[in-house]
Amino acid sequence: MADETSPVSSVAVLGTGIMGAAMARNLAAAGLQVRAWNRTRERAEPLAAHGVSVAAEAAEAVRGADAVLTVLTDGPAVLEVMRAAALGAAGGTPWIQAGTVGPDGLVPLAGFAEERGLRLLDAPVLGTREPAEAGQLTVLVSGPSDLRERVAPVLDAIGARTRWLGEEPGAASRLKLVLNNWVLTLINGTAETLALAEGLGVDPRDVLGAVAGGPLDVPYLHAKARLILEGAYEASFPLSGARKDADLISRAARQAGVRLDATPALAERLRRAEAQGHGADDAAASFFASFTSSDHGRGDARGAS
Questions:
Q1: CB of 247 within 8 A of CB of 255?
Q2: Burial level of 253, CB count in 10 A (0-12/13-18/19+)?
Q3: Crossing angle for the helix pair 102-116 and 171-200, nearest 10 degrees?
Q4: What is the pLDDT of residues 81-119, one digit of tens each?
Q5: I want to staple 15 with a disulfide (CB 3.0 to 4.6 A). Which of 20, 63, 82, 149 is the partner?
Q6: Structural contact between residues 142 and 168, judged by C-beta atoms closer than 8 angstroms
Q7: What's the pLDDT at 5?
Q8: Rounded-to-integer distance, Cα 50 and Cα 16, Å
Q9: Any alpha helices (H) in the chain, and if so which ranges?
Q10: Does residue 35 sit in helix, strand or coil?
């Protein structure tokens, strides 16, 4: 492990799903030494072709690394993995926590970091599969500012820009929930609008054409509408993850005394689509929650075009 002032040159990536795998590849491409671990090892093994060492145990991945990057589903999963991984971590190791865990989920992680002498950076990212693969994420960071130069090689490799939001972990997680509320609004608005168009016999091309280039137009509308129209739901933002985030947002709003109506309803809509078997699909598959049959509409919207 490098001294506590040198820039990070090696990193352990824990969690190699859609986002974590892309980050690991970009870190290796930037010249860092990368060891990766995933609960299902088979999902991490393709990273070896990109110069990433795949570890059998989380503690093995972390041992000797200058920094740890966690990209896991939720707070409990992060804590469970870090309890095992910390056996290999040296005191003072920067821990870049990039998963969306919410303010509540961050509290036990901060306590664990303090207990084990790890230096926690609350660092959720803004972006999905394509920007992750291109190293074009926006990284939101709150935590000790004296780590900025030290972890810059990691943050620069995974993102196009980094926004530092203060010294105490938590500020980044709060901002991430606010931003994801907007993202989920766009996804659900697209899905419901195209479902309504199908029900009313409106050609979806007329919907997209009517707003194209105007004040109601956003790139996300076209990106998610394309998935629905093509009946192809390869996950950029998995529906199960979107449901988890909607629950986090709803809980944080209640605790803050803020009444949200749309997001709790969206969480139930996503839960309904998940029960129909679309949890691993892109969140745009909330389209199916508008219909009683889980197969209704698959390809139908495309047919209208």
A1: no
A2: middle
A3: 150
A4: 999 999 999 999 999 999 999 999 999 999 999 999 999
A5: 20
A6: yes
A7: 76
A8: 13
A9: 18-29, 41-44, 58-62, 75-85, 102-116, 129-133, 148-158, 171-200, 204-211, 219-230, 239-255, 262-273, 300-304
A10: strand
Q: Indicate the burial class of 65 (C-beta count within 10 angstroms; 0-12, 13-18, 19 or more).
A: buried
| Residue-wise pLDDT tens digits, 132-154 | 999 999 999 999 999 999 999 99
Are 88 and 61 in contact by the 8 Å Cβ rule? The answer is: yes
The dihedrals phi and psi of 302, each to the nearest 5 degrees, come to -65, -40
Number of alpha helices (DSSP H) and beta strands (DSSP E) in the chain: 13, 9
Q: What is the pLDDT of residue 303?
A: 42
Q: What is the pLDDT of residue 22?
A: 98
CA distance 221 to 133: 21
- CA–CA gap between residue 162 and residue 137 (Å, rounded): 9
Quick one: 200 exposed, middle or buried, by C-beta within 10 A (0-12, 13-18, 19+)? exposed
Model's pTM, two decimal places? Answer: 0.92
CA-to-CA distance for 159 and 152, rounded, in angstroms? 10
Please tell me the predicted confidence (pLDDT) of residue 82.
97
